Amino acid sequence: MIFIYNKSLNPFYNLAAEEYLVKNSQDEIFMLWQNDNTIVIGRNQNTLSEINYDYVKENNINVVRRMSGGGAVFHDMGNINFTFILNSGNDFSNYKKFTQPIIDFLKTLGADASLSGRNDLVIGDKKISGNAQYMYKNRILHHGTLLYNSEENKLASSLRVSEDKIQSKGIKSVRSRVTNIHDHITVPLTAKEFIEELKMFMLSKGNIQGEYDLERDNKEIQKLCDEKYATWDWNFGYSPKYSFSKKQRFQSGCVEVCMDVKTNGIIEDIKIFGDFFSKLDVKDLENIICGHKHEYGELRNLLETVCVSDYISGITETDFLNIIF
To answer: I need a surface site. Which of 5, 73, 78, 225 has the fewest CB within 10 A?
Structure first.
């Protein structure tokens, strides 16, 4: 097994690195890495039903979809990610095999961690790690989070979404009470020191023969990042089909929008209701929007060519965008 310390903080690059390594290497790998200010969505989830879109947009939080299933998680510089890649297809769903080394390491720091349920690590009754897996041919990728010293308020705010806003066929996350590992260890460490301690622990077990520099594969990983992981089509458009509804009151009246969105993120149907006045028939605005992506940038550019207040008196293009996101 080789060790990789991926020092990139770019979530789109980092998820691309995982896919590249599992599909283009035969080495068994243990990797440590971090994402800065990011929500990572499970492969089978509806992105908009998992995130607090307004909060995410206001705080410039990245959103990226991973290859594995499971729920949405928030990453910041207080969160550390670990990845195992093994040539061992029979170990799919064997979460104990991959989490036991992490549990053993945490115990050396005084943190009494354990595996709970199928794929969570906990201290007491609070979650410190979520884990997920992905299979490619005979290779298994197992990755997990380690909440070391994460901003819990930011975590909660970014993943909070109104339950009645989106009805989706995607798999919803199960929210758990969480705690930071930092609060349970006997010797305070910075996140970087924690990473170094975990690296040294894994080396001491004798399973790691050497360290690999990911820069050697930078060109190929960056290509996969640009063509897949940094795209709206993968991170939002890949979501399962969903229905979206939102109501907002303005001085000029109440506006309610209901939309059906296809699997590829295209708005299939939209209806606009309310007690507002209009100069032009609102059905014409609905027809203009239909067939476009439910994506902020595309709809913002579209609405710049339309005088929204002609169809819904008293509101601006920005007001309308705030309703449909």
So the answer is: 5
| Rg, the chain, Cα only | 22
Q: CA-to-CA distance for 257 and 267, rounded, in angstroms? A: 12
Looking at residue 93, what is its pLDDT?
A: 85
* Beta-carbon contacts of residue 146 (< 8 Å; ≥ 6 apart): 79, 80, 81, 82, 102, 128, 129, 181
CA distance 264 to 262: 5
Give this prediction's pTM. 0.82
Burial of 313-324, coded b for 16+ CB within 10 Å and e otherwise, reads eebebebbeebb
Integer Cα distance of 222 and 219 in angstroms: 5
Indicate the SS3 state at residue 204: helix
Cα–Cα distance, 189 to 1 (Å, whole number): 27
Q: Which helix (H) or strand (E) holds 285?
A: helix 282-289
d(CA 224, CA 108): 38
Nearest alpha carbon to residue 35 among 150, 188, 121, 165? 150
